[in-house]
Amino acid sequence: TEWLDAATRMVRNTHTSYDTKVTVVEELTSDSKRCKRYYAEFSAMTNSLVTQYPDDFRVAELHALFLMRSGAVSGGLDFVKSFFRAHPTQREALDIITEFEMAFQAYDTVRHYCAMYLAAEPNLPEAHMMMSSLEQHLNEDNKAALKRLDKALSLATDSTQRSEIIGYKADLYHVEGNLRKTYKLYDKALKYN
Question: Which of 46, 56, 119, 192 has the fewest CB atoms below 10 angstroms from its CB?
Answer without folding.
Answer: 119
